Amino acid sequence: MTKTIWIRRALLLACGVLVGIVIDRTWQYGMVPTVATQQQQQQQAQPQAPQQQQRGEPLPTMQSLPEEVARLKALLPSNSHIMMDVQWHWTNLWFAGQAKNWPLAQFYFNETRGHIQWLIKKSPTVRSQGPEKEQVNIQGIFDGIDTSSLADVKAAIEKKDSLKFAATYKTMLESCYACHKSVGRPYLKPMIPKTQVQSALNYDPNATWPE
Ligand code: HEC
Question: What value, to the nearest 5°, has the Cα angle with vertex 179 and ends 137 and 96?
């Protein structure tokens, strides 16, 4: 009696294991389609759609292109905005130089130059606010400054020469103003900054915190 019960139990167990194996295999080989395999099949059937289409935005057509370009242009910062960045970096440069923090000065010099270049890339010519309202080639003006007064500031920073730095910084202010006058904005008169506006960075080159 006990022997037949054991055989029955063993048979039942074997059947259970077999059913388990069959279900597992059919699942694995895709006979029972899972969500993942369905997605895979769809992706294989369709060529990879561009990301824009996947987000539901139609791709620009030849007809919609001018409108699209105008929309993107409207998103660009204004010349005034870019120049306010220039002013920020240029002001911080003065105080970095006063603190003899030359790596920081180099950083602010690069930012200043980079932002003037950005203005020029965006608007190589600017409409003068003078009576003629002519288009002024600021690219040409900057090319002259970049190799003279601006290059001199860079050299002073590289030499870590405080006196030279102060002198070249002042001469560069005259070049800033030369460009402002050329674009009919003589009221934009730069000067040596009086107050440090950056209060979130330590200018002390020997600061021990944070490490
Ligand atoms: C190549 C030409 C050019 C040079 C060089 C230049 N600027 Fe300007 N700057 C402009 C123009 C153009 C504007 C007017 C932007 C506008 O509002 O249309 C301007 C405006 C400004 C403004 C007013 C921004 C505002 O709207 O409040 C400041 C501040 C300024 N510049 C600072 C400087 C400083 C500092 C320098 C020198 C480190 C400098 N600029 C060099 C072309 C120049």
Answer: 130
Across all residues in the chain, what is the average pLDDT?
A: 85
Instruction: Note the pLDDT tens digit of each residue in 100-140.
Output: 999 999 999 999 999 999 999 999 999 999 999 999 999 99
Residue whose token pair is 């105080």: 95
Q: What is the pLDDT of residues 41-78, one digit of tens each?
A: 555 555 555 555 567 788 889 999 999 999 999 999 99
Ligand 1 touching residue 184 (CB < 6 A): no
Work out which ligand 1 atom sits closest to the CA atom of 81: 26
The dihedral through the CA atoms of 75, 76, 80, 85 has a sign that is positive
Q: Which is the closest atom of ligand 1 to the Cα of 80?
A: 17
Please report the sign of the dihedral spanned by the C-alpha atoms of residue 165, residue 166, residue 171, residue 175.
positive
Residue ID of nearest Cα to ligand 1 atom 38: 176
Q: How far apart are the first and last CA of the chain?
A: 82
Q: Residue 124: CB within 6 Å of ligand 1?
A: no
Residue bearing the CA closest to ligand 1, atom 21: 83
| Sign of the Cα pseudo-torsion (138, 180, 110, 166, in order) | positive
| Residues 68, 75: Cα–Cα separation, whole Å | 11
